[in-house]
């Protein structure tokens, strides 16, 4: 793998850094306190092309490779994980999955709106009763003529209250386990679909997380994404790339933790000198720096594998596992550098830690990533 970025990759990374400095960082603390990101950010993300990365221009995308996508995701995560999550879900889990699995009609219906920021997408897999064991989901889609009638509920859906379309997973046949699951593209204004905001989150407080309830929701049969019974493969392929996106966001958190810790250690004086001059403070800072680099390299490797058309799912689980745990460690180390000031929200370390914490939980917990990696190494499924 060539670790030198191309001129285009450098340029998109710079563009993202400038965008985040201008449009995200100045508002991140206020959005966190208000528990709501300004929705206007979606249009701005679309205008600058960040909602269309890796998608063909023919469908409104801005092209680019997966490494460029990771660079942008890292910068967004460095500024505000709530904003990063909007992109990781609307583009990463929804638009990219429509691009990979969709019919021509589905691509033309959804991609231009999702890539421009006119539409927001959400990914409806988790249910109140099924999280890690997503293949056992209970939401049902029953065929009636040219339609499916969907009943069930979905929990913890990122972008849920904002979204115009949900990529929804439901059981449409009696085949056992995940083999009976199909994927559907459901407009959120379809009668029978209601949403309830989930409040009181530890982190990602600016993000619109929702519970969705589906009560007799009717969609045309043509809204199925991919073949009947292939829904779990659709979900897993989305999550394999999604885990790389989460990992890139975690690199951003860890980098932000490093930036903040170095700056504060240079300013704060104790025992007659800047705390940067105390060896144990340098230990905290160097531990963060190693976590940043290691997480970034693992994440870039996934992007490189995808861009070269190689298998990447297990490497994506490794990157997500390591980067998410690294982001929590890095943010916690940064908080320690800030001392008592790290514990109040005038300073950035507390928010970084709160935002980092969920990364080890969603898109597969750390335990689930270990089972994916363990299965690949041993050939034995321990799920
Ligand atoms: P459970 O599956 O109940 O797990 C509880 C504990 O048991 C965990 O520690 C887990 O690792 C462990 N465990 C479970 N099974 C095993 C096993 N076989 N071996 C070892 N340990 C095991 N979902 C979506 O579909 N779309 C979204 O947009 C989305 N966004 C989210 C946003 C937020 C802020 C949050 C908190 C969650 C989001 N989720 C979303 C859901 C998320 O993916 C799930 O919370 C996650 O998959 C874990 O499921 P669970 O919470 O039901 O935990």
UniProtKB/TrEMBL annotation:
Domain called Acyl-CoA dehydrogenase/oxidase N-terminal: residue spans: 6-118
All residue ranges annotated as the Acyl-CoA dehydrogenase/oxidase C-terminal domain in the record: 229-377
InterPro entries: Acyl-CoA_DH_CS, Acyl-CoA_Oxase/DH_mid-dom, Acyl-CoA_Oxase/DH_mid-dom_sf, AcylCo_DH-like_C, AcylCo_DH/oxidase_C, AcylCoA_DH/ox_N, AcylCoA_DH/ox_N_sf, AcylCoA_DH/oxidase_NM_dom_sf
Keywords: FAD, Flavoprotein, Oxidoreductase
Presence of the UniProt keyword Ligase in the record: no
Keyword Mitochondrion in annotation: no
Domain of life (superkingdom): Bacteria
All copies of domain Acyl-CoA oxidase/dehydrogenase middle, residue ranges: 122-217
GO terms assigned for molecular function: acyl-CoA dehydrogenase activity; flavin adenine dinucleotide binding
Cofactor requirements of the protein: FAD
One Pfam family of this chain: Acyl-CoA_dh_N
Family: Belongs to the acyl-CoA dehydrogenase family.
Record PANTHER family: ACYL-COA DEHYDROGENASE (PTHR43884), ISOVALERYL-COA DEHYDROGENASE, MITOCHONDRIAL-RELATED (PTHR43884:SF12)
Name under which the protein is recorded: Acyl-CoA dehydrogenase
Biological source species: Streptomyces gancidicus BKS 13-15
């Amino acid at each position: 793998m060539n670790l030198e970025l191309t001129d285009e990759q450098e340029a998109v990374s710079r563009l993202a850094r400038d965008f985040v400095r201008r449009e995200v960082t100045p508002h991140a603390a206020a959005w966190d306190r208000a528990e709501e990101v300004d929705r206007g950010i979606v249009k701005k993300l679309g205008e600058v092309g960040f909602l269309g990365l890796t998608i063909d221009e023919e469908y409104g995308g801005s092209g680019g490779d997966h490494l460029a996508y990771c660079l942008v995701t890292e910068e967004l995560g460095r500024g505000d994980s709530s904003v990063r999550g909007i992109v990781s879900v609307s583009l990463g889990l929804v638009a990219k999955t429509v691009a990979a699995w969709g019919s021509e009609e589905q691509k033309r219906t959804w991609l231009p709106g999702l890539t421009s920021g006119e539409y927001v997408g959400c990914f409806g897999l988790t249910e109140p009763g099924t999280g890690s064991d997503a293949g056992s989901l209970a939401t049902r889609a029953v065929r009636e003529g040219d339609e499916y009638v969907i009943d069930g509920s979905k929990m913890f859906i990122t972008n849920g209250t904002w979204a115009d379309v949900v990529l929804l997973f439901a059981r449409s046949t009696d085949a056992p386990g995940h083999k009976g699951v199909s994927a559907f593209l459901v407009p959120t204004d379809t009668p029978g679909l209601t949403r309830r905001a989930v409040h009181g989150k530890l982190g990602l407080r600016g993000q619109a997380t929702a519970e969705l309830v589906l009560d007799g929701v009717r969609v045309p049969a043509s809204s199925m994404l991919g073949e009947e019974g292939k829904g779990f493969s659709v979900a897993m392929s989305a999550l394999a790339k999604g885990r790389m996106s989460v990992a890139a966001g975690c690199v951003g958190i860890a980098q932000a933790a490093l930036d903040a810790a170095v700056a504060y250690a240079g300013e704060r004086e104790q025992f007659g000198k800047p705390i940067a001059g105390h060896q144990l403070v340098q230990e905290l800072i160097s531990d963060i720096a190693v976590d940043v680099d290691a997480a970034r390299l693992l994440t870039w490797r996934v992007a490189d594998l995808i861009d070269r058309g190689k298998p990447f799912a297990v490497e994506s689980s490794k990157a997500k596992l390591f980067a998410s745990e690294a982001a929590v460690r890095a943010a916690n180390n940064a908080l320690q550098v800030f001392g008592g000031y790290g514990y109040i929200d005038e300073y950035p370390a507390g928010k970084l830690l709160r935002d980092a914490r969920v990364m080890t939980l969603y898109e597969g917990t750390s335990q689930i990533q270990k089972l994916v990696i363990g299965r690949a190494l041993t050939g034995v499924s321990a799920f």
